[in-house]
Structures are given as structure tokens and as C-alpha cells.
Design brief:
Blueprint (H helix, E strand, L loop, with lengths): L11 H11 L3 H12 L9 H11 L4 E5 L2 E4 H17 L7 E5 L4 H13 L2 E4 L6 H10 L4 E5 L3 H8 L9 E5 L12 E2 H5 L18 E7 L7 E6 H16 L6 E4 L6 H14 L2 E4 L5 H10 L4 E5 H9 L13 E5 L3 H10 L4 E6 L8 E2 L9 E2 L4 E4 L1 E2 L4 E2 L15 E7 L19 E3 L7 E13 L2 E7 L3 E4 L2 E4 H8 L5 E9 L8 E8 L7 H11 L8 E4 L14 H6 L7 E3 L8 E2 L2 H8 L6
Parallel strand pairs: 1-11, 3-4, 3-5, 4-8, 5-6, 6-7, 10-11, 10-12, 12-13, 13-14, 27-28
Antiparallel strand pairs: 1-2, 8-9, 14-15, 16-23, 17-20, 18-19, 20-22, 21-22, 22-23, 24-25, 26-27, 28-29, 29-30
């Protein structure tokens, strides 16, 4: 059943007013929209060619800053060439997968671009993954070359012997700032690179737009990460679309990217946007609330990329003189929620918010080109928002069995047509693709991508993001798969049955994890042991904030857990409940005093 999210739809006068202001920029916008939509899959267009072009035409411009490190476009390209030529020397072939497991730092970009130049595919493992989930990700797209950051060697060592054995496995060690000795059985990559040629490899000119250059992992309802295929064509599309149609920065700008490059926001939005402007990109190891505006001042930042949680953290921080003493006028990202949009814009004096919508595994994107408030903008692709029964988790069909578009002002499921010009690249495991494809939607034989997201149609091809459906929810900027958490909890002897789902908390973005447990008779239940198991088996963001004890959990006739009522009840129920407060690793009982404080928005998790 569809519902209205907000009633303030766009009207024609608003639209014409915004368009009129952009009239002088129409030639640029139209030219780059055509470029974004006109990249032929078999054309020689790639990430590597863009980097080589920047090195040729802007050799002395600082292309990357990281902490105290500086790289001109020329130096950046030369280091990347060393990586590419070394990989070729080691026999890495076009289409071969290499594994990268390291945190945000320049070496990660060197690896990504080095692989891209020779046609290799880099599997970008989330550095927060541990144990069985880490093994799964590394074996989902297997390779023989493992590039391990010094900071993550202990976690890799914990699983290395559990990986499928291969005599061809090679382990490369990338030293971090502390530069300790290279571990036994690893190759010190930086030493190896010292004598390697820094000239452009000829392979770059042979890479086709439809080739995959990276696997980015996204959580799904199956519980374990899925590897989405990222093509040069998709990267090039965002280069034109975000970089030249929307943000339109220039070489005097400084683009701050405090997000991880193993996710698409930084990888295929933030990075190409900076390259499109031939400006400086500032890379951050990890986002920090306390350092954010100091970094903006230090690096003279003029634009940055965000996720909604980042904005809320900044807004909840104490006010300071740095809030307004900066030259940031344009920001770009997704998830900035309507409840803080205006306050954020006013407090930090942000003129242009280029909110966008997209997914690592999707074929559709929206951007707020016209700078409307509280919207993800518009899309040039063929999309529909269809009526959806949230409670029964299924699209609503007409008497002929076809799906029904919503009316203006209504909320429904976003779908986008799959065609030659709007390709669904899908996953490494092709069996997963079927879950995201809808067939015979409006006519026999058509195919549409199922986004799994609820959007509100506000008119004139514009939309607002409302929520996600299914068993995946977003917390701390990450997608949390409920089955992954349930799988870890299932190893506890004290648990008879469990259900994991996301619940909304006032003054917090996304949905916090809640774990409902039915205790097993005859087994002692120890909340501290439960916490220990959760922290051991899960990334921090996936550890449930709440644990709820129940006598029983209702299931459907097909043995699926009924989560709809559980989600609606949230943490305001009579069952015994525990909560893990911010900056703690243990659970305490949720008493009425704490419940009232959380409901009042007094605790930011």
C-alpha cells in the first residue's frame, strides 16, 4: 500500500524558476549529459585514460592530498604506472582478480588505478570484515594476488589458512606510516616498486568501457556480502554526470572525500568529480567529527562529499567559529534527511546541496541538479515508481498482472528499465542477479531493475527517498544484512530463535539494529557472552544496538519470520530489553528513564 511522505510536491513555477537560472549553463549541461549517456560499451574509455590525460594536461596541479602527503597529477600517474607495470611483470592478466584489504590511504588508489590500467579487477574488501564474512568475500571473486595493508595483517592472518589453498597465492605487504618490518611470507611491495618503470603501460589504451575494473561489496538479504561489478563505463558516466553536469568545480577547488573508497560514494562519485575538475582531492583515513572543519580549513576545502549520518554528526557537534569560516559552497552526497536539511544548510552556510541517489548494484541514478531542498533530484534514465505493498513485501498488480505506477505525491518502489543504454552490470555470482530483475512489468518481455527502495514521486521526474524495503537496513553509513547478524547469533547455545531488523531512533539517521531473541530452555542466558559473540563475529556497525527478549516470534505459513509488527513496535514495548549505549561495548537494561531520553532524541548513537 502506498503512502504520502510529504505533501509539498514540485509545481511548474518552481521548476521554471530554477531552470531559468541555469539557462546560461545549458550548453555545458547538455553537452555533458550527451557524453554521459553516449559512452559506447566497446569504446576505449576508462579510468586509466582519464588519469593519464590529467597528468599530461595538468602535470603540476596537486591532484591528491593525504595527511601531509602531496601528489601532483604527474607524480600520481607515475606511481600508478609503477603498480600497473609491476602487476604486469608478475603475470597479472587482463580480467584477472586481485584482492585488496587495506584502509583508506593513497596506496589503495594506486592499486585501484594500477589494476584499471591493465584490465585487472580489484576486489575491494571492506576492512571492517572479520572471520567467516572476510573469508566469504575473499573467495567470492578468488584471486592469487593479495595486497594486505600493514594495519590489517593480524585480521588477514586469522583467516589466511582457511582460504581455499592455491600454490599460486602471493601475499603483498603495504607498509603503513609506522613502517614496521615486513612479515614472513609476505612481499614488501614498496621495496619491489623502487626499480619499476613509471611510464604509461600501453595496455591502458586497450581497455574497453564495458570492462569491469572493481568489485564493490554490498550486503543483501542473503546475509553475506555480494560483489557488485563496477565497469569503466559506469565510472565514466559519473565523471561527466556528477563532475561536469552537476558540481561543475574548477581547478581552484578542493574536494574533500572523508568516505571509504571500498564504497561507491567515494570511488565512483567523489573521485571522478574531482578529476573532472582537474582539482585537488583530499583523502581522509577515517571520518572524524572533531577534525572535520579543522581539515576543511587546513586544506582550504571548497566542496565535500557526504552521507546523511556524517551531516547529522556534524550538526550534533558543538558550534564553533569554524562552522562558517570556510569556502565550502557545494556539497554532494546522499541520505541528508529532511528533518535536518534546512538546519544543516543554514548553520554551515551551504548554498548548493547536490543530493543524489544511486546504488552499487543499480543502473539508475538521481541528482539534484536544480538544487531543490529535500529531494534526490531527477533522473534522465527510464524509471518508474510503482505501487508497493510494504506489509506483504510485494508489488501491487493490476487485473492483467502488470505493475502500477504511483500518482504524483505517492510513495512506491523504484524500478528502472534494463536496456542497452541502461545496463544492469549485476553481481559476480550471477544467480543473485535474478533477485534484482523484474520481468513482464508493463508489457510482456520487458525487464526492470528492482532497487529495493521506496521513493516518493514529487513530479517533473523528481523524487524523494523514503525508505528501504526487505531485510537490509542502513546504519552508520553501511548496509546491514539481517541474515548475517542472525547467522552469528545462531551459534549461541542459549538462543532458540532470533530475528534481526532495523528500528528508527529519534535524532539518528538510518535504522539501528535490534535483535529479538527467544531463549532456549535449559541454557543459561548471559548478556555479556552474547555481546562478546556479536563483537567477535560482526563489524561494529552491524552489532545490534538493542536486544529484546521474547517468549515467541511469529512466523508465516512458509516459515518466514514476521518482522513487520516487530519493526513497528521498535524499542517501545513491554518485553525485557537491553541497549548498547554510544562508546560502549556492553549491554545494559533499557529502563524507563533511558527509554524517555532516547525518545526525546537525547542520545545520538
Amino acid at each position: 500500500m502506498t503512502k504520502t511522505f510529504q505533501n509539498n510536491n514540485l509545481n511548474l513555477f518552481q521548476l521554471l524558476g530554477k531552470i531559468f537560472k541555469l539557462v546560461p549553463q545549458f550548453p555545458r549541461i547538455i553537452k555533458n549529459i550527451k557524453k554521459a549517456k553516449g559512452i559506447h560499451p566497446n569504446s576505449c574509455a576508462s579510468l586509466g585514460m582519464i588519469i593519464e590525460s590529467k597528468a599530461l594536461h595538468h602535470p603540476n596541479v596537486i591532484g591528491l592530498k593525504y595527511e601531509e602527503q602531496r601528489y601532483t597529477y604527474s607524480a600520481f600517474n607515475q606511481i600508478i604506472n609503477k603498480y600497473a607495470n609491476y602487476l604486469l611483470l608478475k603475470g597479472v592478466k587482463n580480467g584477472e582478480t586481485v584482492i585488496a584489504f587495506l584502509e583508506n590511504r593513497p596506496e589503495l588508489l594506486f592499486l585501484i588505478a594500477g589494476c584499471a590500467k591493465i584490465g585487472a579487477i580489484i576486489s575491494l574488501i571492506n576492512p571492517n570484515q572479520r572471520e567467516m564474512v572476510l573469508i566469504h568475500s575473499m573467495e567470492l571473486a578468488p584471486g592469487n594476488h593479495f595486497f594486505i595493508g600493514e594495519e590489517l595483517v593480524p585480521f588477514f592472518e586469522a583467516v589466511k589458512n582457511s582460504l581455499r589453498a592455491s600454490p599460486g597465492h602471493k601475499y603483498y605487504w603495504l607498509s603503513d606510516q609506522q613502517v614496521t618490518d615486513c612479515p614472513v611470507s609476505y612481499i614488501d611491495l614498496k621495496k619491489e616498486l623502487e626499480q619499476i618503470d613509471s611510464e604509461n603501460p600501453i595496455s591502458t589504451r586497450q581497455i574497453k568501457a564495458n570492462q569491469v575494473y572493481a568489485y564493490v561489496f554490498t550486503s543483501g538479504t542473503t546475509g553475506l556480502p555480494k560483489a557488485s561489478r563496477q565497469t569503466h563505463r559506469k565510472w565514466m558516466t559519473t565523471y561527466y554526470w556528477f563532475g561536469k553536469v552537476n558540481m561543475n568545480l574548477n581547478s581552484n577547488d578542493v574536494m574533500y572525500v572523508p568516505l571509504p573508497f571500498y564504497h561507491t560514494n567515494a570511488l565512483i562519485v567523489g573521485w571522478p568529480t574531482a578529476l573532472a575538475a582537474s582539482c585537488t582531492m583530499v583523502m581522509k583515513r577515517k571520518f572524524s567529527v572533531t577534525q572535520f572543519w579543522a581539515d576543511v580549513k587546513k586544506y582550504n576545502v571548497s566542496a565535500f562529499i557526504y552521507i546523511g549520518e556524517l551531516c547529522r554528526y556534524l550538526l550534533n557537534a558543538p558550534e564553533s567559529d569554524l562552522d562558517k569560516k570556510h569556502r565550502v559552497r557545494k556539497i554532494m552526497g546522499n541520505g541528508l534527511r529532511p528533518d535536518i536539511w534546512y538546519e544543516f544548510k543554514k548553520r554551515f552556510q551551504i548554498k548548493h546541496i547536490f543530493e543524489f541517489y544511486g546504488a552499487a548494484d543499480g543502473n539508475v541514478g538521481f541528482t539534484n541538479t536544480l538544487n531543490f531542498d529535500c529531494t534526490i533530484g531527477w533522473s534522465a534514465q527510464n524509471f518508474r515508481i510503482i505501487k508497493y505493498d510494504v506489509e506483504n513485501d510485494s508489488p501491487i498488480k493490476d487485473p492483467n498482472g502488470f505493475l502500477i505506477p504511483v500518482s504524483k505525491g505517492e510513495t512506491g518502489l523504484l524500478i528502472s528499465e534494463i536496456s542497452d543504454t541502461s545496463v544492469f552490470d549485476g553481481y559476480v555470482n550471477k544467480k543473485r542477479n535474478a533477485d534484482k530483475i523484474l520481468s513482464n512489468v508493463f508489457k510482456i518481455g520487458d525487464k526492470w531493475f528492482n532497487s529495493g527502495d521506496l521513493l516518493q514521486d514529487i513530479g517533473f521526474r523528481h523524487a524523494r527517498f523514503v525508505d528501504r524495503i526487505g531485510d537490509t537496513f542502513r546504519w552508520k553509513g553501511e548496509n546491514v544484512a539481517t541474515a548475517e547478524v542472525e547467522g552469528v547469533v545462531g551459534h549461541l547455545k542459549c538462543v532458540e530463535m532470533c530475528a534481526v531488523y532495523g528500528v528508527q531512533i529519534p535524532n539518528n539517521d538510518g535504522r539501528a539494529g535490534m535483535l529479538a531473541i527467544v531463549k532456549r530452555n535449559g541454557e543459561d542466558f548471559d548478556i555479556d557472552s552474547v555481546a562478546l559473540q556479536l563483537h567477535k563475529g560482526l563489524p561494529g556497525y552491524a552489532v545490534p544496538v538493542f536486544i529484546r527478549l521474547k517468549n515467541e516470534i511469529n512466523i508465516t505459513h512458509t516459515h518466514k519470520i514476521k518482522k513487520f509488527d516487530l519493526k513497528n513496535e521498535g524499542f517501545n514495548c513491554k518485553d525485557p530489553m537491553y541497549v548498547m549505549l554510544p562508546k560502549t561495548n556492553t549491554y545494559i537494561e533499557l529502563n524507563e528513564h533511558l527509554r524517555k531520553e532516547i525518545n526525546a532524541g537525547g542520545i545520538v548513537f
